[in-house]
Amino acid sequence: MEKEIRQIRILTVILAVLLCAVAAVMISLFPQYSASEETGETKRFVYLAPLAEEDYWVDIARGIKAADKDMGSDTLLMRFNEENGEFEMSIEDAINAEVDGIIMKSTEDIPDILEKLAEDQIPVIFYDNDYPDVKRTAYVGIDNYQAGIKAMEALINLMEGKGKILITTRNIEAVSQSKRIEGCQDAAEQFPEIEIAVLDHQTNELLYKEKLLNTLKSDPSINAILCLDGVSADITGDILKDNRSEDKVTVAAFDLTDKTKQYLEEGIYSLVIMQDTYQIGYEAVKQLHAYWSGDYTDKEAEDTHCVFLDVICVMREDLEKYVREDDEELEWNVY
């Protein structure tokens, strides 16, 4: 009788161990969901992007949707026209819809609305560039000062430490541009045989073309160009080709767009500085979940919170590593 009891106990222990093992395997097979899913509540976010064709905004959206899938949230992808006051209206609509968070291109021009978002406890994630003095929860993106340093050092290395670099910018007073210029200047100070000049074009393509050609003609000592903004980055290659000047200067630019990728492939550009826009979207959603999980309890720290991503230097030979092929169709709402 005692022998049978011992056998039953042994079988019971073995069965319990097997059940635990099966449970562990089953848990590993299912994705990890956010706390909101565990309570049956889906967090609703809004991503606000300018109505433009640039891959920059689309790649951010792809990162957002990947994060939604992993974390159990639902983010509405919204595009707006920057020139018709639609940006402000889209934010107000998000407030009225009582969303749980907004991912938006950074701005300091609408302090009243940002104050309203803070009062309503709607977290706001900035991307593109940062304004830490306004009411936002976090900034996700590159450190523009460090990006300027990295771009300048990489370009100077190609120039073997000597020559004159023309820095092109849409506006020397724009926050992202001024920080990049500051980084460029600080990096250049370490090289006594390097000179720099700055060309400001105010986002006017015709003005930029005229000023660039006049500058190159009047100062033949310029043997490199560093494009800090999207406009100059996308058209400098064509300007140089049209004027048969592509072999006279070494060119570096910011942001891996279709045009800068083409110039890299053609050898007109030597390097492109980029940020992982897909990762911006993913990290933005992650920060919103962190807010709602209670990780943002220090309000003073909240006002200066930044999530800096890696600054990537892309050369022609490793270009394919950074070209993302993704045919997934995104569902956009246009304001």
List its salient traits.
335 residues; alpha/beta; 7-stranded parallel sheet; 6-stranded mixed sheet
Name the helicity range.
Answer: 40-55%
Low-confidence stretches: 22-39
Distance between the termini: 79 Å
Beta-strand segment tally: 13
Q: Write down the overall mean pLDDT.
A: 85
Strand content: 15-25%
Counting helices, strands and paired strands, the structural category is: alpha/beta
Brief summary of the model shown:
The chain has 335 residues and is of the alpha/beta class. It contains 12 helices and 13 strands.
What's the topology here?
Layout: H1 2-29, H2 35-38, E1 44-50, H3 55-71, E2 74-80, H4 86-96, E3 101-105, H5 111-119, E4 124-127, E5 138-141, H6 144-158, E6 163-169, H7 175-188, E7 194-200, H8 205-218, E8 222-227, H9 230-242, E9 250-254, H10 258-266, E10 271-275, H11 277-292, H12 299-302, E11 306-308, E12 311-315, E13 332-334
Parallel strand pairs: 1-2, 1-3, 2-13, 3-4, 4-5, 5-11, 6-7, 6-8, 8-9, 9-10
Antiparallel strand pairs: 10-12
Helix pairs in contact: 3-11, 6-7, 8-9, 9-10
